[in-house]
C-alpha cells in the first residue's frame, strides 16, 4: 500500500503485519510456477496454431482472423480480473487465474470448430491476468517482508518470477516437440491441465497480504456506518482515507499519467509480443522460411536467452530505474527484430537476432510488471495493473487486424511483421519515457 501525497495523508503511526522469510519465499515460488503454466497454456495455443489450422483446412488469413478474435475475447476476461481481485482479495484472485488456465486447456482439447475455439480460448484471459495479480500480491508482500535481501532486491527477485514467461514459452515449445507427434495437438492441451490444477491447490495455503487485510477492515467499518473510525484507521497507517471506485481511482491524481502513458505503451508493444512471442512459430516458418520443427528448436534457444533478459532487466531496474530499463529495452528490441526480418540470412543469424530481440522485448516486462505494482494504492492496485495488462489484448487485436488485412492483400509475413511488430516495439519504448517514476511502496 503506497502513501498518497495528493490526499494530505498524515504520517503513519501504525505498521503492517510483517511477512516472514519462509512465507515470502513460498509465495514467490508458487507465483513463479503459476505464471509458468499460465504462459505455457497461452503460448501453446500460438505454437499449435499452424497445426490447428492444418487440421481444419484454414488459410493464413483465416488463422490470423481466429487469433485476432481470440485476442478480443481474451481482453474482455483479462480486463475484468483486476476489479474482481480488488474486490475478493489477492489470494482468491490468484486461485481464480490459475484455475482458469486449467479449464482453458481442458476445453481447448475438444475443439470442434473455429467459433468454439474462440470462445474457450477467451478463458485464457484469466491466465494472461496471472502476471498482473502476481505483481499486485508480491509488490505488497515484498514491501513488508522480514527478508531484507528480498526487500532490498525486490525488482531482481520479481524478475525471477516474471522470467517464467520465456521459460513457459520454452516449455510449450519443448512440450509440443515431444508430444505432438505422439498424441496430436488435442492431447497436448489435455495434458497441460494437470500442472495448473496442482498450482491452484497449492495457492489455497497462502495468506492474504497485510495491505489488503487493512483494506477489508476499512470496508467493513464504512459498511457499518463507522466512516470516521475508518478514516482515522487509514490515517494511522498513512494511506488514502477516501474510498473510491478502483477503476475511477486509477484515472485520478498522480495515478492518471502513468495509467494513460503505460496503457498506450502496452497497447503498442502488444504488436511485438503477439508476433514475435505468441505467434513466433508462424513468423519464423512463413516469414523466414524456417521449418516447423526447426522453429520449435529456435524458440527453445531464444527463450532460454530470453529468461536471462528478465533477470538482467530486473537487476538493472533496481539500480537504473525501472522506467528507463523498460524504455531502452523495447527500443533495442525493435531494432534487432527489424534486422532479423530484413538483413538476416541463414539459421545462425536468425537465431542470434531473434534471441537477442526476445532478450530485450520480453525481459523488459520483469521491470514493467513490478513498476506497475508500485504505481497504485492498495484499493486500486489490482485494477491498475490489471487494466494495463489487459491493454495488451486490444493492441494484439489491432495488430492482428492490420496483419490479416496485409496478408489478404498479398503482403508477406516478413513485411507485415516488420511494419507492425518491429516498428511497434520500437515506438512503445519511446512512449514509456512519458511515464512518472513510481513511488516506493510503504514498508
From TrEMBL:
Q: State if Transmembrane helix is listed as a keyword.
A: yes
What membrane topology is given?
Multi-pass membrane protein
Q: Which Gene3D superfamilies match?
A: MFS general substrate transporter like domains
The compartments listed are: Cell membrane
All copies of the Major facilitator superfamily (MFS) profile domain together span 27-439
Alphabetized PANTHER family for the sequence:
CARBOXYLIC ACID TRANSPORTER PROTEIN HOMOLOG
Its protein name is MFS transporter
Lineage, broadest ranks: Bacteria, Bacillati, Actinomycetota, Actinomycetes, Pseudonocardiales
Amino acid at each position: 500500500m503506497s502513501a498518497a501525497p495528493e490526499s494530505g495523508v498524515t504520517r503513519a503511526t501504525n505498521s503492517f503485519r510483517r511477512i516472514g522469510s519462509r512465507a515470502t519465499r513460498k509465495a514467490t515460488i508458487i507465483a513463479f510456477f503459476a505464471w509458468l503454466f499460465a504462459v505455457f497454456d497461452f503460448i501453446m495455443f500460438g505454437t499449435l496454431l499452424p497445426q490447428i489450422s492444418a487440421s481444419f483446412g484454414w488459410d493464413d488469413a483465416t488463422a490470423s482472423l481466429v487469433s485476432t478474435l481470440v485476442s478480443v475475447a481474451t481482453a474482455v476476461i483479462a480486463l475484468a480480473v483486476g476489479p474482481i481481485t480488488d474486490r475478493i482479495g489477492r489470494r482468491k484472485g490468484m486461485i481464480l487465474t490459475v484455475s482458469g488456465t486449467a479449464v482453458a486447456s481442458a476445453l481447448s482439447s475438444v475443439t470442434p470448430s473455429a467459433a468454439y475455439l474462440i470462445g474457450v480460448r477467451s478463458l485464457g484471459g484469466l491466465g494472461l491476468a496471472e502476471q498482473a495479480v502476481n505483481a499486485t500480491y508480491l509488490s505488497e508482500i515484498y514491501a513488508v517482508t522480514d527478508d531484507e535481501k528480498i526487500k532490498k532486491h525486490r525488482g531482481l527477485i520479481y524478475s525471477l518470477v516474471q522470467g517464467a514467461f520465456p521459460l513457459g514459452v520454452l516449455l510449450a515449445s519443448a512440450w509440443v516437440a515431444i508430444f505432438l507427434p505422439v498424441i496430436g495437438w488435442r492431447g497436448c492441451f489435455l495434458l497441460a491441465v494437470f500442472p495448473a490444477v496442482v498450482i491452484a491447490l497449492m495457492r489455497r495455503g497462502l495468506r492474504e497480504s497485510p495491505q489488503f487485510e487493512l483494506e477489508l477492515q476499512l470496508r467493513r467499518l464504512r459498511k457499518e456506518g463507522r466512516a470516521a473510525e475508518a478514516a482515522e484507521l487509514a490515517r494511522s497507517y498513512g494511506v488514502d482515507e477516501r474510498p473510491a471506485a478502483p477503476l475511477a481511482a486509477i484515472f485520478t491524481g498522480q495515478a492518471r499519467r502513468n495509467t494513460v502513458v503505460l496503457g498506450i505503451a502496452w497497447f503498442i508493444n502488444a504488436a511485438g509480443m503477439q508476433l514475435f512471442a505468441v505467434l513466433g512459430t508462424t513468423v519464423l516458418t512463413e516469414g523466414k522460411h524456417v521449418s516447423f520443427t526447426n522453429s520449435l528448436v529456435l524458440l527453445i534457444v531464444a527463450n532460454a536467452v530470453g529468461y536471462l533478459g528478465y533477470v538482467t532487466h530486473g537487476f538493472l531496474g533496481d539500480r537504473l530505474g525501472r522506467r528507463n530499463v523498460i524504455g531502452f529495452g523495447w527500443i533495442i528490441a525493435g531494432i534487432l527484430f527489424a534486422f532479423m526480418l530484413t538483413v538476416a540470412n541463414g539459421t545462425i543469424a536468425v537465431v542470434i537476432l531473434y534471441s537477442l530481440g526476445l532478450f530485450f522485448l520480453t525481459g523488459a516486462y520483469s521491470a514493467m510488471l513490478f513498476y506497475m505494482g508500485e504505481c497504485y494504492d492498495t484499493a486500486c492496485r489490482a485494477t491498475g495493473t490489471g487494466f494495463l495488462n489487459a491493454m495488451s489484448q486490444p493492441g494484439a487485436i489491432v495488430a492482428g487486424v492490420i496483419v490479416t488485412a496485409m496478408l489478404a492483400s498479398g503482403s508477406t509475413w516478413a513485411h507485415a511483421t516488420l511494419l507492425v511488430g518491429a516498428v511497434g516495439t520500437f515506438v512503445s519504448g519511446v512512449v514509456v519515457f512519458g511515464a512518472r517514476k513510481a513511488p516506493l511502496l510503504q514498508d
